[in-house]
User: Fold this.
Amino acid sequence: MALTTDDIKQIAHLARVGVDEASLEPLRADLSTVLGLIEDLNAIDTKGVEPMAHPGNAQLRLRADEVSEENRREALQAPSPETEQGYFLVPRVIE
Assistant:
């Protein structure tokens, strides 16, 4: 898809992006190239191809959900000035 500099100005206006005159031509060429690549991809026949979430079709290896540390709540809360029912008590900051 070939874009014109007027197209680039319109796109920049809609996106609220400032583009100076010197950048219009390189930006037009780059965006035209990107849109051309997208057209090439859209032209490929993908009927019968199953979509995949990852190009490697990898499966996540999950570890077992096991407790690996002992409960040290009391020891970690011991230096705290105030706790209640296993929670840290902090001063109110919102009235």
Residues 5-42 form one domain. The helical segments are 5-15, 21-42, 73-77.
